[in-house]
Design a protein that fits this description.
203 residues; mainly alpha; two-stranded antiparallel ribbon; two-stranded parallel ribbon; 7 helices; 10% strand; disordered C terminus
Length: 203
C-alpha cells in the first residue's frame, strides 16, 4: 500500500512539474513523425497479464519493398534518438503508473512474445508490477547480458522495499543526468538480443 500510494503521488506530481516538458516532447514528435504522437504496445504486467504501454514515438514505420519494417537503426529519427538518450520517451509511462499497470520501480516490461522463453526462475520477474526503471537498469542496463538482467530482476523481487525503491530512483536520476549506459546506436531499446535468448531448457 505504501509503494502504491508513493507511486501514484509521485507520478501525479512529476506530471504536473514536467508538463511543459511533456508538451515540448509531444510537439517535437508531432513535427518529426506526425501522428500518432504516442507509441502503444501490449506488454506483460503483473503475473504476465497484458496491458497497453505508452511512450513517445521515436521511430518511423518505414518498410522495404517487401513490406517488412526496416531495422530500428534505420527507423529511429534524430529527434527520437535525443528523446531516448534523455529518457524523455519514457515519460508517458507515468500514466501507466497512475492506472496501476506499472510501478515507478520494477522489472522492465518486455514483449508478450518473450513470455514462453523464460525459465521458471526468470518468470518470477512478473511477480511484481513492471517498472519505468529497475534494479537491472541501474546495474548495467545494456552493458550486461539478458541472463544477468533477469537475475537482477528476480533479486529485486526477493529484496524489494520502499528504501530500495528510493535508492533505485536516485541512481536512475544520476544515470540520466550523466547519460551513462545509454542505448548503443541502432539498438531497439529493451528488445535487442531477445531473438537469440533462450532460457535454460529452451531450444
Amino acid at each position: 500500500m505504501i509503494k502504491r500510494t508513493f507511486d501514484v503521488l509521485t507520478a501525479i506530481i512529476t506530471i504536473l512539474l514536467l508538463s511543459p516538458l511533456f508538451i515540448i516532447a509531444a510537439l517535437v514528435v508531432k513535427a518529426s513523425l506526425g501522428s500518432p504522437v504516442l507509441f502503444r504496445q501490449q506488454r506483460p504486467g503483473f503475473h504476465g497479464k497484458p496491458f497497453e504501454l505508452i511512450k513517445f514515438r521515436t521511430m518511423t514505420e518505414e518498410r522495404d519493398g517487401l513490406g517488412n519494417l526496416l531495422s530500428a537503426k534505420e527507423r529511429v529519427t534524430s529527434t527520437g534518438r535525443i528523446l531516448r538518450q534523455l529518457s524523455l520517451d519514457e515519460l508517458p509511462q507515468l500514466f501507466n503508473v497512475i492506472r496501476g499497470d506499472m510501478s515507478l520501480v520494477g522489472p522492465r516490461p518486455l514483449l508478450m512474445e518473450y513470455l514462453p522463453l523464460y525459465n521458471q526462475e526468470q518468470a518470477r520477474r512478473h511477480e511484481v508490477r513492471p517498472g519505468i526503471t529497475g534494479w537491472a537498469q541501474v546495474n548495467g542496463r545494456n552493458a550486461i547480458t539478458w541472463e544477468e538482467k533477469f537475475s537482477l530482476d528476480v533479486w529485486y523481487v526477493d529484496h524489494r522495499s520502499f528504501w530500495l525503491d528510493l535508492k533505485i530512483l536516485a541512481l536512475t536520476f544520476l544515470k540520466v543526468i550523466q547519460r551513462s549506459q545509454i542505448d548503443k546506436p541502432g539498438k531497439d531499446k529493451g528488445t535487442v538480443g531477445m531473438e537469440r535468448f533462450r532460457g535454460p531448457g529452451k531450444a
